[in-house]
Structures are given as C-alpha cells and as structure tokens.
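Appendix B, record 7
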Amino acid sequence: MVVNLDRLFSRRAMKLKGSEIRELLKLTQLPGMISLAGGLPCPDAFPIEVIRECIEKIFDKHILNALQYGTTEGLPGLRKVLAARMSEKKNIDCEFHDIIITNGAQQALNLLGFTFIEPGDVIITGAPTYLGASQAFHAFEANFESLPVTDDGLDIKSVKRNLKRLQRNKIFPKFIYTVPSFQNPSGVTMSLENRIELLEVASEYDLIIVEDDPYGELVFEGDAIPPIKSLDRKGRVIYMSTFSKILAPGFRLGWIIASEDILNKFILAKQSADLCTNPFGQYIAYEYIKGGYLDPQLDKTRKLYRRKRDVMLEALEKYFPDNVKWTIPRGGMFLWVTFPKRINTRTMFKRAIGKKVAYVVGDAFFPDGSGHNTMRLNFSYSDDEMLTEGIRRLAEAIKEEMASFDLEETIMAELI
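Structure tokens (predicted):
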C-alpha cells in the first residue's frame, strides 16, 4: 500500500473541497430531524405514473436503442423537442444542433470550467452564489470576483465598477456566472432591465455570460421574465438548465445551449469524461415532453410549491424575531434569511441541530467566506406540518442564540 499519497495526488486534487450541503444532508437522516437544508424537490412533484407510461412506450418502440451507447451530443429526438420548447416557451432562438445533453446541470458547470478556466483566471459571480458552481470553478483553480446580489439580482452597478477596476489592472475575467431566476440560494430574480444591461456590459467588455436556469419554470407568482439568452443575438450567452426540477433529479439530465464553437469544445470535453449521457433517461425525457406531459405536471408543481412557500412565510412571520429579515421569492425552492451582524449561523448551527432542525449556513454560498449572518431555507421538500414545526424549532434556536449575546453584553457592561 502507498503510504504517502499526498506526494502522488495532483495539486488540483489536493485543493478540492467537499460540498457543505452534501455533508449537511447526512445530518438530515438522524431520527426526528426536520431538514430545511437540502435543495430537494418534493417527491409529490414526481410524475410517477407518467414516467411509467413513458417507460412502457420505450419498451414498445425504442428499447434496443435505449440500452445502447448514445452520441455525445445527446438523443436527437430529445434535443429537437427541447429546442422547440425553448423557442416556444423561452423565446430562445435555437435548433437541436445548438443543444448538448449533460449528466445533470452540475456536469454542465464542470464542462464550463474544463473548457474556459486556467489556474488563476478570474470569474465574476454573485455574492451569494450557487455553491455547486463555486465548487466546480474552484476545482479548476479560478479566482472569484464576488459581487453583491440585490433584490433585482446581480448588482449591475457593482459589475460595471469592478470591471473597470479589473481592466485598469489588466485583469480580464473569463465569464460572468449568474442564476437570474429565483436564485439559489437567495430566491431573488433579476429584473428584465438588469438582464438587458448585463448583456450590454458583457458586450462592452467582450465577456461571456453563463446563465444557469434550473428554476425558471417554477414561477408561481407574476409573469416569467425572459431569459438573458433570449436577448442574445451574438452567441455571448451560454444557457444551461436541468430536468431535475421539472421531471426528477434521479435521471441526472441537463442541457446546454451555446454557439457552435463553444458547443464543439464542450462535446470534446464530455467525450473525455463519460462518452455520453445515459440514453434510457434521455428517452424518458423525450417521451415526457413529446407526449405533452410536462406542462400539466408543471402546473401542479407550481401550485404545490407556492403553497409550501406560503406555509413557510406564515411560520416565519409567526415565530421569528422582528429584527430578522427574509426574501419573498416569486418562484423556485428557496428563501434567504438575514440576521443582525452579531449572529453567526455557522456557530448557531449546532444549537439548531440540538433542536432537530437543519439549514444551510449562508457563508457556504460566498466564495470569500463572508455572509456569516445569513442562511438558506428550502420550502419545497418537507410537508406543510414539518415546515411549520421546523421554523418553530429554528426560531427557538435563534432566540436562544440572541439571548446568549444579550447576556454576554450585560456581563461585559457590568465589568466595565
């Protein structure tokens, strides 16, 4: 057995970090634990009977091809129905040859990093930003320029200001990464005005925008805002999405829409990783869309998640202290909680676990490690009763944490 593996691992492998959320999910398996942590869809949203029908159709029509190797780009039929849907529902001008099917959106992020990032390259993200993206880009040794996220999404003024500063220092970022619709983790949505302006800024500085859109179909209040990709006329936007939130995450199916030059590089990178995405799952997704099942199922999911969001918001209003703030998302699966600066949600996490409730600490979503007084809460997974009880337990932990600070301040004042 090799004793000193550290001398054999690559520098890149030595810098890899584990997912905080993956580790937190282990705690959710403890008896009696209520998890408001993971980004899991509600099992009630899985179209089980529809999937059964799709599988029966596959056995009738496609079974030999479904069990065989597939092309790296993905099943042509699936790419065609996806392209038609992107054009009809999202106003994204694309054909099937503009799409590659991936093993989930996470592989799309990995292909992005593999294709674009050299060690030390600068990329622009929000603060907070999606943890899975941070992990993927960190694996390729990127440097992060993390800019504030406001109620209207990525702060465009900050983007402009920092791009000017970087340019003065002869630093040229590779791309801007954003989740503009119902962002993970904050739940906020970038306004149409900001999407237009971000595209203009990217054009001015000759940058690529990476638009990650896993939640865009989950709008349950107001109108959906057009994707940035629908405004793109120069192939500057790489659009990625997933079936995990609109079918089931277990299939591990995602897709990328990009210009030919970019897509060709992704195809080569994917060939070196896994040859192809599993054909059987692709055939299920193909039959799911082609059979007209997706939109009726989305209507059910939107109603389900809106109710769950409202249950959580009602519980927050009832139980949380007045000096705690939270976002009110119009879709998606998450909301974002901000505490007074003195509260550290990482420190408080142990107290919450003692109450049998889990959340995700906010600093996990900040590449620079800030955001210590924030947390992400998921409302899609737990049932209504558990959502209310989970918020009640969490409120107890918060109040105890705040009381401990008040006691410390009183003691210090008396000593002085």
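Remarks on this record: DSSP finds 14 helices and 14 strands in the chain. The first strand starts at residue 34 and ends at 35.
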